[in-house]
Amino acid sequence: MSSYFAYTRVSTEKQGEGVSLVEQRAAIQALAARMGVEITRWFEERQTAAKKGRPVFGEMMRLLRSGRADGLLMHRIDRSARNLRDWVAVGDLADDGIDVRFVIDQVDLNTRGGRITADIQAVIAADYVRNLREESLKGIYGRYKQGLLPLPAPIGYLDCGGGKPKEIDPLKGPLVEEAFELYATGEYSLESLRQKMHERGLRNTRDGPITKNNIAHILRNRFYAGTLVYKRTGELFDGQHAALVTKKLFETVQGRLNRKAVKGISKHNFLYRRLLRCALCSRFMVGERQKGRVYYRCHNRACETTTVREDVLESHIQQRLRSIKLDDELVDEIVREAESLVQAEKRESETNRRTQAASLAKAKSQLSSLTAAFVSREIDQLSYDVTKADLIERIEALDGTDGKPEADLLDEVRSVLELFRSAQLSYESGDRESKLDTVKSTCSNLTVARREPSVELRNPFRRAASSSCVLSGAPDRGGSRTLCPKQLARLAIDEAIRREEERRQNDDL
Which fold has domain 157-259? Predict the structure, then answer.
């Protein structure tokens, strides 16, 4: 009795749990009984036939080519192959003398007419897969245009069913946000951040341990900033889901990832670490603790600067901060001058914002039309790529230069001017974080030449310290007082704008 192999297939594991495989097996057994042949081995596969590379199918073909069976029984042609390369392999079996039979498609591959009929059916099966894929891609693209992610929710979000935006996971979402914030500080590598977030309780989508690759994927995923990326074309869409992080924070993290800025983590977190430089060689002074005191040392052996004690440095900082203290009356007058200046620029800034918004809307509309033209094959790949790159660059530039509202700018100006009243007290009586914030807000450079510290103030504090506005804490009542508040107001506005720009470009620090 001739020996035959039998092959059954479904496209997914879920389909394998149904009755399809049972029905295929029963029909093949009935065909074998009618033919009077013995099925010596069954091959069952639960994988799509749209692409090559099925392991069970490949093993069966290898055994058939080595002469382990006289023939092959299958349910129908599209169960054997839905890509033409695998179908050619089936045809080669028939050419090599192996009897290939189908239960439903009763064609004889050993005759010219039968082979043509089978080839036509195989081409139809392959075309069905291609058409199904195109329709699926249209549906997926439609979801992206709606601002919906047609994929499982990433770590930190929950699936809420088809056609609905992802929702923030109340447990993992805040931890993902914390991961972005920690990495943006520059104090963590991917591995140290993984360890930190594991300790904080962050787990992957299957509630298993978080990996370094998980962390890298999270930090690179624009979904967390409220943006969807359609990978086939690179097109960006505004998502309907709530963003976990701001675009500013996301771009800061991208800057640090791209430059691999983290070199390592300091064992001792000294207060003026990476703030104090040697004035002679421009290197950072390195903190160290000896006999209960903190010193900062220049490690350039050829440099004349050796060390400075932290308490000596702090004494110089306190002296400089005392020199900028203004009385309440003068600070209030400077605030009024700043409000007047900001209001005077309001009309121009409003016009600029409207123009910018119109330009941004136009660029987004052009990008959407461009993608539609490419999908419908009205333009070629090269034209699409060049134009898309230009539009995306224009959109990112417009989206990143949003004017700061006057109210927010005034709040920032008031924050700057408040330091005239409170900087000295905040530094002398504040905790470690308060001291550090005060120094960063008021001082632009801390240097040491040999053993002598130098503290350079930012404007408007530098101008105030050297002007006639400060006379033992009281304003000069002479003619210079009329000019001074306007000057300081302008400088305070410039400092407020600088702070905002610094936050926007924090990834370049």
Answer: Hect, E3 ligase catalytic domain fold (3.90.1750)
Query: Nearest-CA neighbor of 214 among 302, 296, 155, 262?
Result: 155
- Of 153, 342, 359, the residue nearest 241 (C-alpha): 153
Domain boundaries, the chain: 3-132, 157-259, 319-509
Cβ-based burial of 17 (10 A; exposed 0-12, middle 13-18, buried ≥19): exposed
Three-state secondary structure readout of 21-90: HHHHHHHHHHHHHHHCCEEEEEEEEECCCCCCCCHHHHHHHHHHHCCCCCEEEECCHHHHCCCHHHHHHH
| Torsion, CA 63, CA 67, CA 69, CA 71, rounded to 10 | 100
Q: DSSP code of 111?
A: S
Task: Give the integer Cα–Cα distance in Å for 505 and 503.
Answer: 5
Q: 456 — phi, psi (to 5°)?
A: -100, 125
Instruction: Give the tens place of pLDDT for each residue, 227-244.
Output: 999 988 888 999 999 999
Asked if the peptide bond before residue 460 counts as cis, ω within 30 degrees of 0, the response is yes
3-class SS at 357? helix
Provide, rounded to the nearest whole percent, the portion of the chain with pLDDT above 70. Answer: 88
| Contact yes or no for 467/346 (Cβ under 8 A) | no
Compute the Cα dihedral for 351, 357, 362, 367 and give only its sign. Answer: positive
Q: Tokens standing for 249?
A: 């924070």
pTM of the entire predicted model: 0.41
Determine how many CB atoms are found less than 10 A away from the CB of residue 236.
18
pLDDT tens-digit readout, 367-407: 888 888 888 888 888 888 888 888 888 887 777 555 444 55
Cβ 178 vs Cβ 197: under 8 Å: yes
Q: Which of 77-91, 104-118, 495-509 has the highest mean pLDDT?
A: 104-118
Q: How far apart are CA 288 and CA 432, in angstroms?
A: 17
* Residues 278/300, Cβ–Cβ less than 8 Å: yes
Give the CA distances from residue 202 to residues 151, 192, 214, in Å, rounded to whole numbers and listed in that order: 21, 14, 11
Picking from 440, 450, 379, the residue whose alpha carbon sits closest to that of residue 415 is 440
In whole angstroms, what is the distance from residue 410 CA to residue 205 CA? 44
C-alpha distances (whole Å) from 128 to each of 78, 94, 122, 133 are 10, 24, 10, 9
Look at the chain and count its residues: 509
Of the candidates 230, 477, 176, the one whose C-alpha atom is nearest the C-alpha of residue 368 is: 230
What DSSP character marks residue 495? Answer: H
- The number of helices, as runs of H, and strands, as runs of E, in the chain is 18, 14
3-state class (DSSP) for residue 192: helix
Q: For residues 350 and 346, what is the distance between their CA atoms, to the nearest angstrom?
A: 6
Q: Is CATH 3.40.50.10330 what the domain over 3-132 is classified as, yes or no?
A: no
DSSP label at residue 472: T
481, with CB counted inside 10 A (0-12, 13-18, 19+), is middle
Token code pair at residue 394:
């224009």
- At position 191, the amino acid (one-letter code) is E
